[in-house]
């Protein structure tokens, strides 16, 4: 898209993932002059940036897509949990279908947004890092769709600059790929990303050292190829799928079980766990006993079952105890669970080591690799940071956003605690909103489910702001009355006909003074109905 300096929009969207794409389509359909800015070079958001090997979605296909039929009607998924590459193709498909490219600017990072009190607009500075240019854009409404994982986190280890090999953060992986064959690799971090990248790097690297702080309580992924017939069935079931995902706690196709864990006998519990385990996927998490993340006994029972299933996969007793410790690292289910395919098998490879950085912390990074507290040096060619993000708030707090009081940013306001209303806006930042962010159910939801709900809600709000309901009704009544009789046929200034180019419509209340007196009286008696008294 083109980008004129000093462009002024009704609504400016920041971020081109699910949120930005959904809102661009929706707001444009309602006649808003809307434009989207994305720092990546195409749509996809998190799926554009996170192009490390093995990146794939952990939410099962029918729930992880836009809900409107035209988007899935012409689209086929090849797997229940598609790869990043397939998701990127999906975003291309939707971008074309909704014709979004003409209202989007790529390689455009919003670095600051300042509210102009006089003009009542957001003045935003947009930087194009490729071309090293900066543009100023104004917008009445600013709507952030930067997601939960916009700002990568790299722990500040000493000596990073001394390292002679290559360092990559998973979420800023080179798009052209990296050849890891025969390389000595190190991965720091075993979150959702760590699990996926370790599965890919393990078999390829000449040696892989995993630096683990907290073991991931990973569940087996119910991955499956999807045939043409499967796709037809998925489409046929979409109405029920959508209804179900709207009804569950976080948009998953599972609900918590209606019993508490200790309501069952140990045998009943065992057989319930077995059934959940059979289904694979997140069932053993969000389909578990309803008190799993509430009662310590329930959490412990689920953890020990998980451990019993998982531990036998790992041959080496040291690695086994590190990956599935006897004592749960956190209450079961209270930290992001991942879905694995080969994660535990990878640790059976003779070329894969595990280091517990609680026992032996990373001291610093040297020119050859990582030096641990006890002096041991792990030599590496490639060091991979799978250390996550300034999750949830980072996408908002790392941008210089200043509202009615320019002396502080949104990030400053939230330093001592996040303050929002409905998890979509924050006082002192007028005409500023976001989707899929702090203090909403977003961080523990399937993205599209939360995004579409918030996107619809905000669109309605913006429409109501533009034309308050009472004005809409008043206008309808005026025009309807104007249609009656012969007045509408005359070229009169009652109908705006005397000024070339002026909107031709009735500008007069045609029902007469007595009716008008009555109406205004009613409004007053009803507490000035339709006014917002301050
Ligand atoms: P996560 O889930 O934040 O995982 C980051 C990992 O990095 C995690 O294992 C951390 O250990 C580890 N970490 C972070 N700092 C350090 C230091 N200093 N030393 C050692 N290890 C460290 O990020 P992901 O990218 O995996 O997942 C991102 C989410 O975004 C994912 O859940 C998706 O749903 C969307 P810790 O567990 O904190 O002990």
TrEMBL record:
UniProt cofactor(s): FAD
Gene3D superfamilies, per the entry: FAD/NAD(P)-binding domain (3.50.50.60)
Keywords recorded for this protein, A-Z: FAD, Flavoprotein, Monooxygenase, NADP, Oxidoreductase
Domain called FAD/NAD(P)-binding: residue spans: 10-226
GO molecular function: monooxygenase activity
Highest taxon in the source lineage: Eukaryota
Family assignment from sequence similarity: Belongs to the FAD-binding monooxygenase family.
Protein name: Baeyer-Villiger monooxygenase
